[in-house]
Specification:
This protein is α/β, with parallel strands linked by helices. It folds into two domains: 218 residues, Metallo-beta-lactamase, Chain A (4-Layer Sandwich); 58 residues, no CATH class. 36% of the residues lie in helices and 19% in strands. The protein is built from eleven helices and 13 strands. Helix 5 packs antiparallel against helix 6 and helix 8 packs across helix 11. The longest helix has 23 residues. It is globular, with a radius of gyration of 20 Å. The termini are far apart.
Amino acid sequence: MNIQQTIIPLVFLALSAPLVADEHVITTSSHRLTEVANGVYLAQTTAPLFNSNSLIIVNEEDVVVVDSHLTPAKARDLIQSIKSVTTKPITTLINSHFHWDHAHGNQVFEDGVQIIGHEYTRMKLAGTPLEETQYVLATAGNKATLARIREMLTNASEEDRPEIQKWFDLYSQQAEDWKEIAPIPPDTTLNDRMTLFRGSREIQIHFFGRAHTGGDVTVYLPAEKLAFTGDMMLQGPSFLGDGYVDEWVQTLENLKGLAFETIVPGHGNPFTDRDLISHVQAYYADLWQKVAAMHEQGIPIADAARDIDMTNHAPTLGVRRKGVDPQAVGRIYARLDGAD
């Protein structure tokens, strides 16, 4: 029995293959650290549950971290893993956006660590982040998955029981980890752009416009020609439930103005194909038009989500099934009705 495919929602999987030759990778008990530029590491969890990427920037005297993972426990694992590449202190944490899987580890960074984010990100994290729809859905999904696994354990054969028990333990621990979360907002904010100079390293933080959320920032290293884009730009369409799909195309056009050679996204592996940005822009523009047509006809969200066909993007983005996420349709309907 393939337990992973049977009971684990894909949104919770960390589906990342090794990036480069082993000599550029350090594996700890919790993370795979891949050196993507000199002294710059992509940190990806090795646990088979959903998490976000972090970027570790080791400078001459300190360390800057981008994104803190989804729980304090996962953030502590990240901090411990950083010690495998440097003994320099972490002085700065940057949040690419407010979503729970990128910022709910903030609280375990030591006092005195500066936390930087967009003004919108601070507003969200200083508000009621544990009432945000995506966090509520995530915790509810974990609870539902635990119930399914518990039922499977009841009926499991002796052969299957150890594997099922492993997944039950993983999800049980994640539920416990979430109980510890006490979100911490950035203490330093930007509206448009900020630049950090750490020794010889220049670290630019850019807000190019609303996209995945109202406050996505890109962390850009001009000397290394590397951009960490969070969830604003993945290797395909991002989650759209909090997005500004009508503005996203222009935001990505603004991103193209950076002289980067590598994008490190908030999930998945780095990529160098700039054409992916144009393909994703085309997808968002097309989706907006198709959803707007459904909205004009008064078609219910669930029906529109089922019937919208984006498979014309199969050659560029691999979209092979009809239908889209109802949360994406609901968000576009809300924007069409005037929601911010």
